[in-house]
Amino acid sequence: MILKAKNIKKYFGGLKALNGISLELNQDEVLGIIGPNGAGKSTLFNIICGVYPPTEGSINFEGKDITGLKSHNIAKLGIARTFQITHAFQGMTVLDNVIAAIGMEKYNGLISMFKIARKSDIVELAMNYIKLLNLEGLENKKTGELSLGKMKIVEIARALALKPKILMLDEPCNGLSYGDIDIFLNLIFMLKEQKISIIIIEHNMNVAMKACDRLIVLNFGEEIADGIPKEIQNNPLVIKTYLGEEE
Amino acid sequence: MFLQQLVNGVVIGSVYALTAMGATLVYGILRVLDIANAGAYVIGAYIGMTIYALTGNLFASLVATLIVSGLIGVGLERFIYLRLFNKSPVILLITSIGIFIFIEDLLRLLNGPYAKRFPAKLPFDGVQLANLSIPGTWILVMVVTAVLLFVLWYILYHTKIGLAWRATAQDIEIAKAMGINVNLIVALNFFLGYGFAAVAGSLIGIMYNSISPTMGDIPAYKMLAIIVLGGLGNPVGTVIAALVIGLVETFIGGYIGFFFPRDAIAFVALIILLLIRPKGLFASKNI
Amino acid sequence: MYLIVVATIVSIYAILALSVNIVTGYTGRPNLGQASFFGIGAYTTAILAGKYGVGFMPSLIISGMIAGIIGLLLGLVSLRVKEDFLAITTIGFNFVIVAIFQYVPFFGASMGLSIPPLKLFSIPIGHIGLLAIVLLLMLLVILFSYRLERSWLGIALVSIRNNEDAAESLGIDVRRFKVISFGISTFIAGLAGCVYAYYMGFIMSYNFQFMTSIAILSMAVVGGLGTIAGPIIGAVILGLIPEVFRFASDYRLLIYGTILVLMMCFKPQGIMGGDNSTFINLIRKTPPKTAGMDK
Questions:
Q1: Which residues of chain C have a CB within 8 Å of the CB of B156?
Q2: What average pLDDT score do residues C264-292 get?
Q3: C185 falls within a domain
């Protein structure tokens, strides 16, 4: 078990966004978090990734308590994430986006921060990720000029360049075309082979069922089901929750 | 003595409120810090003085200056700000400063760099109550300010267009989607904002019997401090902040005027405030 | 001779424009008070060299350091306030600093401070020598900016400008780098202040008022934020206006205001800005919610 979140509660003033969620992620597993809008999925992500601390509860990564750490520190520990609305650096080229991630270790050294970034070995490394995600040819294009689907893939490439142990994807298929979704599914299978554990928030049921080993269902800040896709699909409570929400 | 200072402070604060109202209204709708609004302050003083010289009628001058400056404001909005609506704040700020510089220099060219007089004869005299001496100009300022602010308050909170205005200030896109004529609202916003600043400029000109092309320099930036203190885009907060600053300047300025300039007080207050409450004095939960 | 004097002041402006470019250009945070640090540097030199006879080199370094340290403090303050407030905070800071220079007797109050002529190793340096020093300084700043753009620090700053949250998720300590960017920027402004003090021979508080900050920022913006050539070209163009339009000297401000407005309307990314869309089309990341006009 590589990540364990215990009894996470998050209150924003009077609003109970999360009311005691627990989850476990095992090595090499693809865990899906699904649920209607407003269920608290992104909030849970933000807490795990250090955007804000939980009101109550703890998070344990590889045996270490990471509750309340800031996101840049969590990134350095090996958890990478993407965002629901794409946060790719739109004013930078695709190549620079990936290079920015590769530099994670370099930013903090007083000497290393002044070293030239785009050295040939770094560029080569970046190109590896770019090729891995079928973005070859686009590396010098400004990310903001790409299609939404491509931008999201750039964001994933960037996250991968952090060499994370856990990759957290927030609605990666949101707004993607069917073709892009297929590419994405292939990507997930490929990443599993690379020994990266993955958590996906997904609204697209098709993707969630196909890509994930296990699913957790949230609604109104509470966990209503946890199991393998087949079980979840047939869970009456889940079906009721999604009535009218099916895509 | 204290009472005298108090009234003095209220008078100063009233002018600040009128001047700052334009900036806060513009911010409320466009999320833009508009320094050019202080240009209206200077223009207003000159127009007021000119109309008064022509007609001898104080009321006419104030009304005329409000209307003319208001229209200038709408013109600026149409031709310049509209283009820059969604651009970075630095761009807009520099543009508004460019406009302000242009206005002040244009006035200098047209009217000469020296101060001119604005000798308005008031239809009423000052008041003397025991130790309290209230000059007629002070009464004029307080009355005019109260009237204008009341009108604004009434429009904003008791009319349909005011409702539409507030909706637009909340979220311009949603307002558009709801069928609100956003263009009209923005124009009205600029009209009143610039008009008020113009009246404020005239009032100051009358009060000190002096107007000059550079009279807008300090107010331009002080108004920014005041609207931040009052909560950007919050008209009520702005009035309160303006009065507070007016009072603080009058009282403290009187005592430590030799050691620290009055005009910097507003900024010191601002910096201290932002350190304690980064969201401003009256910021609502939204910021 | 006249050309040398003009070239010197334009070069000083170029250094200042390059300095503000680091915070507002690379990191994307509005700084409308750079003249404060320009002034802090100048006054530090005026006090060290003028009152205590400290030599040029130590004055230069110390001026930069003091401006830089105070800049770090402002950077820390900037962390607490949101973007719209940051602009006003820097303006307010400018006013307060100028007020201090104006009123505190130690800083000469309204009489200003004078600086002795520049001497390097006890050899008097004339106008040409000063120009050479300023040009050298400018060259160093250019080289530094060049290096910065290509370094990891530069990438961190540009990442922050593009998307703070994403930058944070890449292991970039956004808060730390914001402060660092202020420190570097103001350090350079302090250096400029030092040479300016020697150039002028006499400084007063109004040399560093808010309008000067605007002049500096607009040079960087008109020339092109986020580039190196931009601030330099901006400094040349806007800095030469007073000279070039000598014949129309009465209309200088009018022209200046017009240039600002026209540039922002038609080419806000600046002359050298290319199609750099990051600044200009900043549909604000989260629309800043105001205090609201509803009660």
A1: 293
A2: 60
A3: yes
- Chain C hits for B76, Cβ within 8 Å: none
C-alpha pair distances (Å), B95 with each of B37, B69, B81, C2, C90: 12, 19, 9, 32, 18
Minimum Cα–Cα distance from C280: chain A residue? A91
Number of folded domains that form chain C = 1
> Residue C293 pLDDT more than 60?
no
Domain assignment present for C219:
no
With 0-12 CB in 10 A as exposed, 13-18 as middle and 19+ as buried, what is C148?
Answer: buried
Mean pLDDT of A187-199: 86
Annotate C89-104 with b (16+ C-beta within 10 A) or e (fewer).
Answer: bbbbbbbbbbbbbbbe
Q: Distances from the Cα of A189 to the Cαs of A149, A212, A229, B85, in angstroms?
A: 18, 10, 16, 45
Cβ neighbours of C197 (radius 10 Å): 29
User: B89-92: long-range contacts at Cβ-Cβ below 8 A with a sequence spacing of 24 or more?
Assistant: B89/B31, B89/B32, B89/B33, B89/C30, B89/C83, B89/C84, B89/C87, B89/C282, B89/C284, B90/C24, B90/C30, B90/C87, B90/C217, B90/C221, B90/C225, B90/C279, B91/C221, B91/C264, B91/C268, B91/C279, B91/C280, B92/B32, B92/B33, B92/C264
Structure tokens at C25: 């250009």
Task: Note down the domain range covering C188.
Answer: 2-213
pLDDT band, residue B81 (cuts 50/70/90): confident
> How far apart, in Å, are the Cα atoms of A152 and each of A172, A211, B283, C286?
7, 17, 36, 20
Q: What tens digit of pLDDT does each residue of C119-140 get? A: 777 788 888 889 999 999 999 9
> Is C34 part of any domain?
yes
Give me the phi and psi of A11, to 5 degrees please: -115, 130
d(CA C276, CA C267): 11
- Reported as a single tens digit per residue, the pLDDT across A119-133 is 999 999 999 999 988
Higher pLDDT, A207 or A74: A74
Asked if A49 lies within 8 A of C169 by C-beta distance, the reply is: yes
Question: Poorest-confidence range of A196-205, B47-56, B171-180?
Answer: B171-180
At residue B200, the pLDDT reads 93
Q: Tell me the chain B residues in contact with residue C82 when contact means C-beta distances shorter than 8 Å.
A: 278-279, 287
The pairing of strands C119-120 and C123-124 is antiparallel
Which of C282, C273, C237, C209 is CA-nearest to residue C32? Answer: C209
CA quadruple B173, B179, B181, B183: dihedral sign? positive
DSSP E strands in chain B: the ranges are 127-129, 132-134
pLDDT of residue C247: 63
Cα B33 to Cα B134: distance, rounded to the nearest angstrom: 35
pLDDT tens-place string over residues A48-83: 999 999 999 999 999 899 998 999 999 999 999 999
Nearest chain C residue to B262 by CA distance is C99
Beta strands A222-227; A79-81: pairing state: unpaired
**C144 to chain A nearest CA, in Å?**
10
What is the pLDDT at residue C65? 96
Cβ within 8 Å of residue C294, ≥6 positions away: B166, B170
Q: Across the interface, do A89 and C163 touch by the CB < 8 Å criterion?
A: yes
Q: Is the pLDDT of residue B154 over 50?
A: yes
Neighbours of B105 (CB within 10 A): 22
Minimal Cβ distance to A72: which of C171, C276, C278: C171
Q: Where residue A224 falls among pLDDT bands split at 50, 70, 90?
A: confident
Q: Touching A: which chains, 3+ CB pairs < 8 A?
A: C
Distance CA B6, CA B207 (A): 17
**What dihedral do alpha carbons B230, B234, B236, B241 form, nearest 10°?**
10
In a domain? residue C283: no
Angle at the Cα of B271 from the Cα atoms of B266 and B276, rounded to 5 degrees: 125
DSSP lists the bridge partners of residue A58 as A6
